[in-house]
Amino acid sequence: RKPRAAPRRPAEPATPIVEKAPDARTVLVVGDFMASGLGEGLDTAFAENTKIRIVVHSNGSSGFVRDDFYNWPEQIKSLIETEKPAAVIVMLGSNDRQQMRVNGEREQPRSEAWTNEYERRTEAFGKAIASVKVPYLWVGMPAFKAPKMTSDMLAFNDIYRTTAESHGGEFVDIWDGFVDEDGAFVTSGPDINGQPVRLRTDDGIYVSKAGKRKLAFYAEKPLMKILGMTAPTGTPAAYAPAGAPVGAPAPAPMAVDRTVPMLLNDPALDGGSELLGAAAPAKADGSGEKLVVEGKAPAASPGRADDFSWPPRGQPAAAAATETTTAITP
């Protein structure tokens, strides 16, 4: 008998294609292959938002080290002038763990000379964006499967943070979204809805579709802040509904009809002092009821252990004895 095939997972619903408004604001995403994945995630996040258009200009093998291959400080200005974005998002640096030529010498990654030159190039990139007066986000690198690569990315993120904050940008830290509680690389983890999914590919470098969406999730809220758009509370995606006006005032609070508390002696009432249906207080007839209702214990029977009367009831008082003195006759 042939074994049954494993049931197929239901296909994900296709993302509806929504035509962007003529005045939609452009968000330019630039960088290496990680930026390409981030752009896909943002495109999914804003697929139904007619007011935001995501444009990706990435070069998968580029970085700051091989400026002979692609020079980002020079290219970024022309890209911004062409696209005229409302905001720029940068994710760049995953290819930079390689030797760099400095003053004619090949320097090893993260050596002193290498680091100084790398900081100079990132500074030039940050200044180029700042010079065109466009707000930007710099998304940091995630952890990778190779421990040495992860260590290098931590050092790179410190440089990116300093550069962004020094030149009017904002650094977006995504590190915690792709590591476990101990800070170690993970292949699988929670998606934007908290469900366990595969975030990375087997090589521990690239990100899956869910991972791309998670990259975008980290950038959404600061992006919406830059664009002056407010996200509805309680939703994982930080963007306003399609067609909502930017900066629209919050709706007026709904009036709630509340019943005012009433006192029993309120003159506006009928003068009654009791609630409707209230029963008359019980009358204490028997000795047992007096004890329960009025708290009065019945009198103790004469001679009983709880009869503390003195002199004891029912017994005549003893006559006082007369003391006499008898004279002794000698």
For this entry, give a set of tags.
single chain, 330 residues, alpha/beta, Rossmann fold, five-stranded parallel beta sheet, 9 strands
Strand content: 5-15%
- Biggest sheet overview: 5 strands, parallel
Spatial strand sequence of the major β-sheet: 2-1-3-6-7
Question: Into which percent range does the helicity of residues fall?
Answer: 25-40%
- Assigned CATH superfamily of the domain at 25-227: SGNH hydrolase
- Which CATH class of the domain at 25-227 is shown? Alpha Beta
Structural class based on helices, strands and sheet pairing: alpha/beta
Q: CATH topology of the domain at 25-227, which one?
A: Rossmann fold
CATH architecture of the domain at 25-227: 3-Layer(aba) Sandwich
Oligomerization: single chain
Quantity of strands, as a count: 9
Morphology call? elongated
Which residues form runs of ≥5 with pLDDT under 50?
232-250, 317-322
Order of helices and strands: EHEHEEEHEHEEEHH
In angstroms, what separates the terminal alpha carbons? 141 Å
Mean pLDDT: 82
